[in-house]
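Aim 2 progress update. The chain analyzed this quarter is reproduced below.
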Amino acid sequence: MLDLKLLRENPDAIREALKRRGSAYPLDALLVKEQQRRQWITALDEQRREQRLASEAYGQQKAAGTAGAPPAALKALSERIKAQEQELKQLEAHILSELAVIPNIPHASLPVGDAASNEVVRVIGQKPTYGFAPKTHMALGATRGLMDLERAAKIAGSHFPLFTGMGARLERALINWMLDVQTKEHGYTEIAPPYLVNRASMFSTGQLPKFEEDMYRLKDDDLFLVPTAEVPVTNLHRDEILEESQLPICYTAYSACFRREAGSYGKETRGMVRVHQFDKVELVKFVKPETSYGELEKLVGHAETILQRLGLHYRVVALATGDLSFAAAKCYDLEAWAPGLNQYLEVSSCSNFEDFQARRGNIRYRQAATKKLAHVHTLNGSGVALARTLICLLETHQQADGRIRVPEALRPYLDGKDLL
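Predicted structure tokens:
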């Protein structure tokens, strides 16, 4: 959520930021409401002062034994104050609801435009070549008995995964290995979060109110299946005050992820490219504002470690302003190459939200030198997402006979197997 003070004092900066995002949100009506709110606060403060003075005068009369019944004017003033306080609460709730649908300010370094303006920052490795026509993960998975998408559709419907045999082992091995890398090598603390979260948690991270229709919700309990472990992990410190000495706080968590929206049709939804349920290891950081962009670069590097050790060709892409997620100020996508599909697949998004989520979730820290409170900056990234990473692994490491070479880093998690 944006800082209301910034909106009030520098609305032109917000207008320019929204313009760079391609958003046409009308700020003028909100600014009028904010001006009205401040006027009401000033008027209420004056009436409360008047009430206090009148109450003190009446109290002195009672002490002197000269007071009669409470003045009608004092009673009327008290009732008027109560009514205006209720109106102010309603106005503040309206302002909050409007602020909740305004996206974050994009970082100045980002290219301006839609997805076509995304900027490739670096490319790692070369696209693999083969002496045969590379197969898709669907063909490889069916031939090797690694997945069964037809039975998945029978059980749950289209766009759900079902791993079988060594496919299930491979999925589990990837999750365990990725968690080990982030905890043992990069210093993240592992979290095993709930897969259901409440409305306040979804609001805090920016999924609500804008994206409610894309989420799976249990209407009887008003709980949501997590779209990513970012949601429960970021909310670990909702409504808390951290000490500066605790920062940065770095968490990693595995969760299944659930999203109703299955994306576009055709090529983009073949096999397991877009599914309603997928596994992901998430990275979440709580950091000081002055260090947050350095921490973002570190986080991207931690996600890249996974792709490099899996022997995947990939590229790092800085998203343009119009392609940013609602809550992000800056985001890098990691896109791995899938030879069978002949396309790059996004397997990680690494974002700095600055204080946008922290304001929504009231996550603050106490500065050591001044003892003042400030909002932390929150970051998160996939470290990394399955099943797309598994798609790229299968298609990249396929052999002419249809077997799959196991990357060396995963072999200890698969009883030393080097081929599937």
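Residues 4-99 form a domain with the Helix Hairpins fold (CATH 1.10.287.40). The chain has twelve helices and 14 strands. These observations will guide the mutagenesis experiments scheduled for the next reporting period.
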